[in-house]
Amino acid sequence: MEFSTLGQHCSMKTCNQLDFLPMKCNLCSIVFCKEHIKYEEHQCPSFYRKNVEVPVCSSCNNGASLRNRECRCDPSLKKREKVYSYKCSVISCKQHEAIEVKCYKCSKRFCLKHRFPDDHKCQRFENIERSVKISSDTTIECTRNTNTIVENKNQSNNATTTEDDKLLALTVQLSLNRIAQEENDFLLAKALQESEQEETRRNRATPMVTTSNSNHRPKRKKTCSIQ
Predict the structure, then answer these.
(1) Which residue windows does the record flag with biased composition (Basic residues) (predicted)?
(2) pLDDT of residue 169 exceeding 50
(3) Which CATH superfamily is domain 1-52 in?
(4) Alpha-carbon distance 225 to 223, whole Å?
(5) 181: Cα separation from own chain's centroid
(6) Half-sphere exposure in the Cβ direction for 160 (13 Å, CA)
């Protein structure tokens, strides 16, 4: 009675033995002792699940399929497998096709049901979409940054243009003043030159006139004085 809490009793009514190492039937999931664990001993109600008969092929003595009762050695089956030789690349799909159908993104072979990228979860298609999205986001961000830079540059250019205009106006004014001064200097120099030339001509002409007057001075007649 000290170990009554340990182990389990056999489920057979005629046994009910306390077993410290009870075993459970893998078909009916009922606990039995070592003597009644066999299917026949406890008359397992799920024994039919183990009693499965498979038709045997008379040609190769191998089990045939219960669904269509065809054997792997059937020539018609081999011919059919040869015709439908393109297996779908989806792991869970067992479909074969008579024609080759490839995905235009990943170039893998698929059945008609899984031929589109969305149907077979095309990794390359998803990567392309992800890349396009990232590229689009990057382009939008670059466009925003470019617009900001252009606006700042335009403002800077406007300020620079104003300063340049002022500097240009001052330069033009100084240039005009310099040209006017040069013209005035030129006119003054020309006037001085003409004045000097006129003075020179006058100086040259004056001695000639004096000489001419002295040469044509009238001679005095000699007179005799009679005393």
Answers:
(1) 216-227
(2) yes
(3) AN1-like Zinc finger (4.10.1110.10)
(4) 6
(5) 65
(6) 6
